[in-house]
Amino acid sequence: MLCFAASLSAAQQLSESETVYLASQNPVSLCVDPDWWPFETINTSGQHVGISADLLDLVAKRLGMQFKLHQTRTWEESLVASQAGNCRLMSFLNRTPERERWLIFTEPLLSDPNVLITREEHPFIANLSTLSGKTMALPRGTAMMERLRVDYPHLILVGTESEAEALKMVSERKADMTLRSLIVAAHTIKQHGWFNLKISGQIPGYDNQLRVGVLQSETVLRDLLDKGIATLTAEDRSRVVDHHVSINVVTQVDTDYTLVLWLLALLAAVALTSLVWMRRLHQLNAQLRTQSQTDLLTGLLNRHGLARSFALDVERAQRYLRPLSVLMLDIDHFKRINDGQGHLMGDKVLVELARVIQATVRQVDTVCRWGGEEFVVVCHETTGEQAAQQAERLLQCVRQHAFAHGQPVTISAGVATVRSGDSVETLLARADGALYQAKTTGRDRVCDEPPQS
To answer: Rounded distance, CA 68 to CA 82, Å?
Structure first.
């Protein structure tokens, strides 16, 4: 669970009557979507987790409110339970005329664009109205299905049980397209490896404005939640999304330039008639690539972004007998910063360290946030001895830097160099072993990998 430091402002302070109301009403029953990851799900322990859970937990702590989860098996069950009055709140849903029959809504917890997802060979979709008879797969009971049925009656809407099933149908040519959240689509496509899918457009006015639905009789409760939601900052939302939209390292990537070539050809063909839409499409695809390859906190590459080139770097170094080294870095006693001054300060230290690393290493080197407080630097055309010297310079720069929390920071480093027969995994394993040695022999030092036997 993420930790945040924030409170209600003077204008948002609870009145005496609101405080009494909360004390008498806690806990507040809550219905959620049990299968909408990374937005939300009910895990095997019966807990509400995901982006929605963290944002609601943040709002609850700032208000002094408690939630009691009403467990369901599907989103449709949650809708039925809400209509029956079994839960006073519904988390993370769009406002629609159908839902306004029994719910009132808070201000948005999170805004997120919906995008049209198709197979990579499908042309750009400038106007959905021109696609009569096309099939669109959507999870049942969603706001988007409700709206599309009214706005685009010429489409054939196919109901699915989950987000993943909708995207799978498109990947397997069982449906022409789906309309899904950018965050959810990015996560699900990467999780299942459906890289034959792409963003093909966006419907104006169909962005997700994800709110809390409150039973119509509960206006005081809705107003209280709005006070808590008003305290959420862009940084709060970014940290929560970044925490859940994470990527596992990929060690082999087949480079496919089909999508790039297709986009270039499409740009030339529709530049005169669809310039605005093409610019928007480019922005959406860039946003998708950024989410998959970039660490949102520091702006560095993440594991996935590094993997796209690292495997090729190792292969080239072996083929042409060129030196290639890697530094694995870890902040010493980072937990003390988080525990003593909070996670927000810990994040500031991570951002500052990322800048120090970038300013110290060469421009040709590749810097990655490996995860948590660990960083990786790929040193091109660099022997092990040269890499160790560069690591020593980096440690010295970190010692001399004045970090925001006002206390000294040190890092430990492990160094490894490409050997014959190496893979990304074996190279990083030796660097990690050297880092472990640096940690266990006193920290604030550089350790090289053991010599080759």
So the answer is: 14
Q: How far is CA 54 from CA 25, 40, 59, in A?
A: 21, 9, 9
The full set of domains in the chain, from first to last, is 10-111+208-244 (3.40.190.10), 114-206+247-292 (3.40.190.10), 303-448 (3.30.70.270)
For the CA atoms of 347, 351, 352, 358, the dihedral, rounded to the nearest 10 degrees, stands at 160
CB atoms within 10 A of CB 192: 13
- Report the length, in residues, of the chain: 453
The confidence score (pLDDT) of residue 259 equals 47
Residues 12-51 pLDDT 10s: 678 888 888 888 888 999 999 998 888 899 999 999 999 9
Q: Which residue has the higher pLDDT, 259 or 439?
A: 439
Active site residues: 373
Alpha helix ranges (H) inside 271-360: 275-293, 303-319, 334-341, 343-360
- What the block records as the tokens of 24 is 């008498």
144 burial class (0-12, 13-18, 19+ CB within 10 angstroms)?
A: buried
Over residues 387-401, the mean pLDDT reads 96
Residue 275 CA to residue 141 CA, distance in Å, equals 35
Please name the residue that has the structure tokens 């005081």.
220
Nearby residues of 20 by Cβ (< 8 Å), 6 or more positions away = none
CB proximity list for 201: less than 8 A, separation 6 or greater: 115, 116, 124, 125, 126, 128, 277, 281
Residue 81 CA to residue 68 CA, distance in Å, equals: 14
Torsion, Cα of 423, 429, 430, 431 (10° steps): 110
> Cβ(233)–Cβ(109) under 8 Å?
no
| 170 band by pLDDT with thresholds 50, 70 and 90 | very high
The DSSP code for 249 is -
Strands (E), 120-215: 135-139, 156-160, 178-181, 197-201, 208-215
**d(Cα 222, Cα 167) in Å, to the nearest integer?**
34
Quote the pLDDT of residue 277.
54
